């Protein structure tokens, strides 16, 4: 989910495991304010984030604690590295 109100890219615990980030070994000492309240997170650096043909490298992110949000968030640590992004009707247009 694209979320320009999110500071970071946020991965669910389960998707972080699928990506090989070994969330069981991460330090969940951070906190994030979400629409559902405060959630524990572990800071990580993603090698790259790819959306279609756009690739952004070295993206700051967080892994949500197990059972926290069930949706990954594409936050400003990704969007701020683009030349531009905007809504055009029902479509999000990204320019690198």
What does this structure look like?
There is one protein chain. With 96 residues, the protein is mainly β. Helix content is 10%, strand content 46%. The protein is built from 2 helices and 6 strands. A 4-stranded mixed β-sheet has the order 1-4-3-2. Strands 5-6 form a two-stranded antiparallel ribbon.
Which properties best describe this structure?
96 residues; 46% strand; single chain; mainly beta; 4-stranded mixed β-sheet; 10% helix; 2 helices
Secondary structure layout plus pairing:
Layout lengths: L8 E3 L1 H6 L11 E5 L2 E15 L2 E11 L11 H4 L4 E5 L2 E5 L1
Parallel strand pairs: 1-4
Antiparallel strand pairs: 2-3, 3-4, 5-6
Strand content: over 45%
Q: What order do the helices and strands follow?
A: EHEEEHEE
Could you give a short account of the major beta sheet? 4 strands, mixed
Mean pLDDT: 93
How many H/I helical runs? 2
Beginning-to-end CA distance, first to last residue: 19 Å
What sort of overall outline do the alpha carbons produce when their principal axes are compared? globular
How large is the radius of gyration?
A: 13 Å
- Report low-confidence residues grouped into runs of 5 or more: none
Residues in helices, as a percent range: 10-25%
Strands, total number: 6
Strand order of the largest sheet: 1-4-3-2
């Amino acid at each position: 989910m694209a979320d320009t109100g999110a500071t970071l890219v946020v991965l669910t615990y389960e998707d972080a495991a699928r990506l090989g980030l070994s969330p069981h070994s991460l330090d969940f000492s951070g906190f994030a304010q979400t629409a559902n309240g405060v959630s524990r997170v572990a800071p990580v650096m993603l090698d790259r984030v790819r959306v279609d043909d756009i690739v952004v490298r070295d993206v700051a992110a967080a892994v949500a604690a197990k059972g926290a949000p069930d949706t990954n968030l594409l936050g400003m640590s990704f969007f701020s590295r683009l030349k531009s992004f905007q809504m055009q009707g029902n479509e999000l247009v990204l320019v690198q």
